[in-house]
Amino acid sequence: xxxxxxxxxxxxxxxxxxxxxxxxxxxxxxxxxxxxxxxxxxxxxxxxxxxxxxxxxxxxxxxxxxxxxxxxxxxxxxxxxx
Length: 82
Prior knowledge:
The protein is α+β, with helices and mostly antiparallel strands. The chain contains three helices and four strands.
């Protein structure tokens, strides 16, 4: 899978991104992140910070955070390339 979403269960911003990906029928994997901010080492490794959501698009070499930026990317880039 080339799209990975790093998300926290119950995070409304993460749910917004999930909804956008599903609305556009984009296949993706979810990596569920630990609720303890100090334990979010995996997301820090890929993005340089511990805040979620983070979207990684391996095919295009894109890693981004901030739900609104991710949703815009989903709509303008991923949905239009299907």
